[in-house]
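Project outcomes to date are best conveyed with an example. Our students and postdoctoral researchers have been running inverse folding experiments weekly, and each run begins with a structure described purely in tokens. The record below, which covers 169 residues, was selected by the lab manager from last quarter's runs and is presented without edits.
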């Protein structure tokens, strides 16, 4: 399944397929990954990815697409939902010890919440890769709020995860 989903991601990136096909492929592969996970008893060394839309932002379509694509590539995705307070995000990172944390902000008014999360992680001594995304972010804004990487879309987020060597702690 992983090679097939990687091919789907490449096809999306090159414009051969579009967002509806990407979502459909991710949804179609989810039951298989769920079955494999259950058969392995939730074990198997899958890397974890925690994702949330920050406090004050109730838009989660983009976050949901990112979660589906990353899940379909074999990651154990912990989706905290939308409008998630900083303390809940930090607690989830402490609890699940993910490879990375994905933060989404659709509205410009919620971008400062990403910085708040990054600063809270640092304050608690938590070293985790943070990937920022959402309609209100670009490369410059993402760096200004302290994220490690900016992902322009779901396939970009997955590419970052696969290339990264930085773990949690």
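After processing, the design step wrote out the following sequence:
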């Amino acid at each position: 399944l992983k090679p097939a989903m990687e091919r789907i991601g490449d096809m999306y990136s090159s414009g051969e397929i579009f967002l509806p096909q990407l979502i459909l492929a991710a949804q179609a592969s989810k039951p298989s990954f769920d079955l494999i996970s259950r058969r392995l008893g939730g074990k198997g060394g899958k890397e974890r990815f925690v994702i949330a839309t920050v406090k004050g932002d109730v838009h989660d379509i983009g976050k949901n697409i990112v979660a589906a694509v990353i899940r379909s590539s074999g990651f154990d995705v912990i989706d905290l939902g939308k409008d998630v307070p900083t303390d809940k995000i930090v607690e989830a990172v402490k609890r699940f010890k993910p490879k990375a944390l994905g933060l989404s902000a659709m509205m410009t008014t919620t971008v400062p919440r990403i910085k708040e999360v990054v600063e809270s992680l640092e304050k608690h001594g938590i070293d985790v890769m943070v990937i920022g995304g959402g309609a209100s972010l670009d490369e410059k804004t993402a760096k200004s709020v302290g994220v490690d990487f900016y992902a322009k879309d779901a396939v970009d987020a997955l590419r970052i995860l696969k290339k990264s060597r930085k773990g949690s702690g």
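The chain has one domain: 45-163. Helices lie at 2-14, 19-39, 61-72, 86-96, 111-123, 139-144, 154-163. The training component of this project remains on track.
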